Amino acid sequence: MSAINIDHLSFGYTTDTLAIDDLTLTINEGEYTVLIGPNGSGKSTLAKLFIGLLEPRNGTIAVFDQQLRYDTVDAIRSKIGIVFQNPDNQFIGSTVEDDIAFGLENREIDPSQMQSIIMDYASRVGMIDYLKTEPTRLSGGQKQRVAIAGVMAMQPKIMVFDEATSMLDPKGRYEITTLMHDLKSNTDMTIISITHDMEEIAAADRCIVLKDGHLFYDGKPQPLLDDPSKMAAASLQIPFAMRMRELLHQQGIDTLSHTMEGMVDELCRLHSVM
Ligand SMILES: Nc1ncnc2c1ncn2[C@@H]1O[C@H](COP(=O)(O)OP(=O)(O)OP(=O)(O)O)[C@@H](O)[C@H]1O
Ligand SMILES: [Mg+2]
User: Fold this and answer.
1) Torsions phi, psi of 16, nearest 5?
2) How many whole angstroms separate alpha carbon 164 and alpha carbon 140?
3) 100 within a domain of the structure (yes/no)
4) pTM (whole model) above 0.70
5) Residue 21 in domain
6) What value does the mean pLDDT take over residues 229-241?
7) Which end of the chain lies in a sparser environment, N or C, as judged by fewer CB atoms within 10 Å?
8) How many angstroms separate the Cα of 166 from the Cα of each of 124, 197, 236?
9) Residue 80 has pLDDT above 90, yes or no
10) Can you give the CATH number for the domain in which 13 is found?
C-alpha cells in the first residue's frame, strides 16, 4: 500500500520561483526512505507540504489514499509525526515531560498509560533525567532527542525526520538511528528521513535525491553511492571508502568490497599472491 502519493506537485514561496517543481512519487508503507539533496533543494518544503503546512500550487498529495484537503488535513496530521529541522520550533510544554504529554493528549491516549509511555520514550532517547527540565534550558542535541521522543511516543503511521539528528554527537546519532530502524522493523511504520549522514543513507531501503525541486534520483542507495558523477551532480560527498575504490579502479585494481576493512583484506590477499 502507498503511504504517501504525490502527483505532479509544485510549490513556490514567490510567484516567479518553484521550490518544488512537478514532483511525482510514491512512498510505500513500511519503507525507510532517505530524502537527500543540496541545501535549498526543497527537502523541508516537501516535508511541510506532506502535513498541509504549505498549500500546493499544482498537483495533489494523498496519504494512505486520502487526498490532502482543507477538510482532511486534521485526519492526515494524526497519521504523520514530524520532527522539524530546528527543534526550537517544536516545543509547547513548559517541561520535557509536559511537552511529550501534550502530543499524547492530542492523540487521546488513556491517561493511566501516559506516564509509562513518557518514561519509556524519554529513556529510549537518553533523556529520562531531564523530565522536569524546561526545554529552553537544553542543548541543541538534547532538544532534538526530546523532539524525537515526543513524536515517537505518538506512534504515528508515518514519521518524518528533518535532519533530526544533525546536532547529536556520533554515538548519540548512532543510538537514535538504530532506534529509528528498530521502530521500522518492529512496526509497520513508514520512515522518511531527511539527512546528510552517509551511514544512514547507505543503510536505507530507498534513496530519493532532490535537486532544485526536481526528482534527481530515486532508487536503492548503493547504485548512487557507486556513481561518482551522480554523487557530484547531487553535491554529495563521496564516502572515503568509495573514493578509495575509484582510485584503485583507475590504477587497474578492482575490489569487490565497499568497506575500507574489506578492501584492505583484498589488497593484502592480492599482495601475498604477487
Ligand atoms: N519561508 C521561506 N520563504 C521564502 N523562500 C523560502 C522559505 N523557505 C525556503 N525557501 C526557499 O525554498 C527553497 C527550498 O528550501 P528548503 O528549506 O525546502 O530547502 P532544503 O532542501 O530543506 O535545504 P537545507 O538542506 O538547507 O535544509 C530554497 O531556495 C529556499 O531559499
Ligand atoms: Mg531543510
Assistant:
1) -100, 10
2) 10
3) yes
4) yes
5) yes
6) 78
7) C
8) 18, 8, 16
9) yes
10) 3.40.50.300
- How many structural domains is the chain composed of? 1
CA-213 nearest atom, ligand 1: 14
CB 59 within 8 A of CB 215: no
**Within a domain: residue 271?**
no
Give the chain's count of helices (H) and strands (E): 11, 10
d(CA 199, CA 250): 25
Identify which ligand lies nearest to the alpha carbon of 19. 1
What is the best residue among 41, 162, 209 to mutate for testing ligand 1's pocket, by most ligand atoms within 8 Å of CB? 41
Q: Given this model, what pLDDT does residue 274 score?
A: 65
Cell of 128: 529520562
Candidate from 88-92, 133-137, 193-197 with smallest mean pLDDT: 88-92
> DSSP secondary structure string, 149-175?
HHHHHT--SEEEEESTTTTS-HHHHHH
Return all residues near 47 (Cβ < 8 A) that are at least 6 apart. 35, 82, 160, 162, 192, 194
Q: Write out residues with Cβ below 6 Å of ligand 1.
A: 13, 19, 37, 39-45, 85
Instruction: Name the burial class of residue 162, with classes exposed (0-12), middle (13-18) and buried (19+) by CB atoms within 10 angstroms of its CB.
Output: buried
Calculate what percentage of the chain has a pLDDT beyond 90.
Answer: 57
